[in-house]
Amino acid sequence: MKVSIVTIGDEILIGQIIDTNSAWMAQQLNMAGAKVVKIITASDGHDDIIDSIRQAREVADVVLITGGLGPTKDDITKIALADYMNVEMVFSQSTYEHITGLVKKYGINPTEGHRMQSMLPANTVLLENKMGTAPGMWFDLEDTVLISMPGVPYEMQYLMENEVIPRLVKRFDVYPIIHRTIRTAGIGESVLADKISHIEDDLPDFIKLAFLPSKATVRIRLSARAENGEDVQKAVDEGVEKIVEEISDFVFGYEKQTLAEVVLKRCQERKVTLSTAESCTGGFVSHLLTTIPGSSVVFQGGIVSYSNDLKMNLLGVKSQTLEKHGAVSEATVIEMAKGAIKATNTDIAVSISGIAGPGGGTPGKPVGTVWVCVCNEKDIFTRKLQLSKDRLKNIEYSANIALTAVWRFIMKHY
Amino acid sequence: MKVSIVTIGDEILIGQIIDTNSAWMAQQLNMAGAKVVKIITASDGHDDIIDSIRQAREVADVVLITGGLGPTKDDITKIALADYMNVEMVFSQSTYEHITGLVKKYGINPTEGHRMQSMLPANTVLLENKMGTAPGMWFDLEDTVLISMPGVPYEMQYLMENEVIPRLVKRFDVYPIIHRTIRTAGIGESVLADKISHIEDDLPDFIKLAFLPSKATVRIRLSARAENGEDVQKAVDEGVEKIVEEISDFVFGYEKQTLAEVVLKRCQERKVTLSTAESCTGGFVSHLLTTIPGSSVVFQGGIVSYSNDLKMNLLGVKSQTLEKHGAVSEATVIEMAKGAIKATNTDIAVSISGIAGPGGGTPGKPVGTVWVCVCNEKDIFTRKLQLSKDRLKNIEYSANIALTAVWRFIMKHY
To answer: Which pLDDT score, from 0 to 100, does residue B391 have?
Structure first.
């Protein structure tokens, strides 16, 4: 089953929002064994929508369309679809009742917009959207299935999981694609590629290898189409094994595991509690940890000591240390981490202090200078980083390098 | 000037990464007066790359291609480009010297991969990439300009800003597009649309209006092509003015301003300092504030009190309060905010406590129950939210609603 995705929205073409829907849909479709062959982003214009659906249909058995179904006047996907398929728009009483029921629950009176949302192309097979007012629509054309969904992520996700994918799997014969991903930290893409080049050369032709660097981590992905059955899975698994053997020091996890997940899992297994003391990362390490469900068993909390006063008052960093070495120094991050352990009563703590930029650099400590410390009662690890001039990038890199340091620390000590 | 963007990478088609490059490029191109007409994502396959370039070229004067230029073996954009244009690959000595100079600076020895990176199509006009090893390439075809850039965001951004856009502006006659964006918080898309429906109906036909909801905020975007010169700008500005007059209570900013920016700016002007006490948002409010350059003038820091112990020990929340009302309650968020003011010595503090999910809900306090408090020495504001079952969404919504509360509080009191 070949699938094209058409994302509708001027807001994407002018760069006002990022298309995260396509990535999510592609992921789900792949796991279900579909092959996403093209993603096209089209404008809100009637003719552009029709053109893009036509282009997308040329190479695919299924065209998934998102966006342009809201109650506001800029949403015209439905009309373009009706014109493209040459059918009438009709009023759907059941859709209207669903919408009015939903908005009344939130204490909102139905508007004229909600009535317009209930007009659908006459050949619509309705996919019930329990998460919102815009309906999902399935159209059976001769050689293609067209599916239209709202662009609001959780509504689209509900429809994909509960309506679209189950129906598609029933309808088409699909071969699953096998993916394996090795997740590494503490090593760059080029060096990694060099280290496993001889293994890559020996892999069977049907296995594709890709390096995907992202914020101080690199994923190595092996993929193969499973038409040959179990042998493919075995060959991919063997490839993964050989690669991991070569670079085991840098492999923190597999598949979708994040550094935060791996750190929390190990800590939970070993009954280790964790806290943070963040300056330049401003709470981002803490955020990465707390996005993981159940993190509260391990992560007790942290202190964002953005000002020097808070470094002293909440973490007990000495004023002499700040005067002598500065806030961005090995001595300061050590006192921050020690102070976090004391303030939060945890087994280990990680601290980060640096100059995220764009301002604040000096010749001796340019923008991008960052110190990281991980410690427990007995051992202290520190590391100095020299990162870029980009503030957000520095925050994200520092946070991942700090989590890498925590990961190595707990693997060594617990 | 019509532009198509082709993004190359299997990792996007299988949903492993999100294509943020296209959004950034589209934004820059729009501001320069270009019109992005299509974004296509293609696989790493040789023929798919060629097909997508051909499709993209059909509707555009310029095709911008990103991705597939790294030192690893899965990167074949260059070869596909050479085959598509029917030219040879040649070794570029200057590219090789640039690459070896760059990697030696990081203490890395040049690899065979770096030598392969220096092979370029014979008709390449080189665009110097000061941020990395992969070169930018410009190709002048009869009726189209093809441009190939690396997929690493900051390398692509450097090339766009310093090489690509300046050259394109020189080469093509471009009419700027005028965009104005009104940013609102505390009101939903449908109600907003209804409130300004009469203004929308009166707008000139050449102005397009769009509603863009995102995480408890809604942007209203007006856009028009500037072929008619100043009248278009004036008409758009007048439209903005009329809309803002109607919904002024909900307008926190314009264009790219974020809630965090607006809050920090107002606080800085009024010399107000700010701190946070976060439970379920786990440092995300603090992160949103600290991504803004210069935030340290206003934001002193915060406490992520994930455990009840930290709520008591660092923020002074009373054990009786936690026992009687629970950690997710009005009484607790008030004590958290009061405690943050005391611990950090700031003028105002914002606190958040809730059940982010997916676990931890009870019949009385289901997942998605969140309490927010903003206070200073004299006044206290609290609000209860009932959000979704999605952990990350709950964190992001809570954070934005907390910042909305801070914004209203400082507009009222300072």
So the answer is: 94
Write out the H or E segment, with its range, that includes residue B240. Answer: helix B230-246
A188 and B392 within 8 Å at the Cβ level: the answer is no
Tell me what pLDDT residue B311 has.
97
CA distance B64 to B87: 19
Closest residue in B to A392 (Cα) is B291
Asked if B107 has any chain A CB less than 8 Å from its own CB, the reply is no
Of A94, A71, A91, which Cα lies nearest the Cα of A82? A91
* φ, ψ for residue A318, nearest 5 deg: -75, 145
Looking up tokens 């006009």 gives B125
Q: Is A183 on the interface with B (CB under 8 A)?
A: no
Question: What local confidence, expressed as pLDDT, does residue B373 receive?
Answer: 98
pLDDT of residue B341: 98
The whole-number pLDDT of residue A33 equals 83
Question: For helices B308-315 and A330-344, what crossing angle results, to 10°?
Answer: 110
pLDDT at A224: 87
Interface with A, mutate which of B3, B4, B11 (most A CBs under 10 A):
B11
Closest-CA residue of chain B to A20: B18
B74 close to A (CB below 8 A)? yes
CA distance B353 to B355: 7
Summarize pLDDT for A63-86 with one digit per residue, the tens: 999 987 655 655 688 999 999 999
Q: What are residue A184's DSSP bridge partners?
A: A218, A251
pLDDT in tens, A165-178: 989 988 887 777 78
- Our CA-based measurement puts residue A155 at a distance from the nearest CA of chain B, in whole angstroms, of 12
Q: What is the pLDDT of residue A163?
A: 95
Question: Mean pLDDT of successive 10-residue segments in chain B (414 residues)?
Answer: 91 84 91 88 88 89 86 74 94 88 80 84 92 88 93 92 91 80 94 95 90 90 77 93 97 96 97 98 98 96 96 97 97 98 98 94 94 97 94 96 97 95
Instruction: Name the minimum distance, in Å, from the CA of B211 to any CA of chain A.
Output: 7
**Measured between beta carbons, which residues in chain B are less than 8 angstroms from residue A314?**
301, 303, 314, 343-344
Compute the distance between CA of residue A150 and CA of residue A134 in angstroms, rounded to an integer: 6
Closest CA–CA distance from residue B286 to any residue of chain A (Å): 6
Pick from B14, B177, B290: CB nearest A282: B290
B343: helix, strand or coil: helix
Q: Is the Cβ pair A24, B11 closer than 8 Å? A: no
Q: Which of B16, B211, B287 sits opposite A287 (nearest CB)?
A: B287
> Which pair of tokens denotes residue A351?
């601290």
Residues in chain A with pLDDT < 70? 69-75, 228-229
Stretch 273-332 of chain B: residues touching chain A, C-beta under 8 Å? 276, 278, 280-287, 289-291, 293-296, 299-307, 309-310, 313-314
Residue B170: what pLDDT?
Answer: 85
* Tokens coding A183: 């997740």
Tell me which DSSP letter residue A297 carries. G
pLDDT at B94: 86
Contact assessment for residue B41 and residue B5, using Cβ atoms and an 8 Å cutoff: no
* pLDDT reported for residue B64: 97
pLDDT at A70: 59
Contact A214 B17 (CB under 8 A): yes
Tell me if chain B has a CB within 8 Å of the CB of A268: no
What's the confidence (pLDDT) of residue B71?
58
What is the largest distance, in Å, between two alpha-carbon atoms of chain B?
Answer: 78
Residue A363 CB coordination number (10 Å) = 5
| Identity of the residue numbered B255 | E
Shortest Cα distance, chain B CAs vs residue A68, angstroms: 10
Asked if omega into A150 is within 30° of 0 (cis), the reply is no
The answer to whether the bond into B366 is cis (omega within 30° of 0) is no
CB A334 within 8 A of CB A323: no
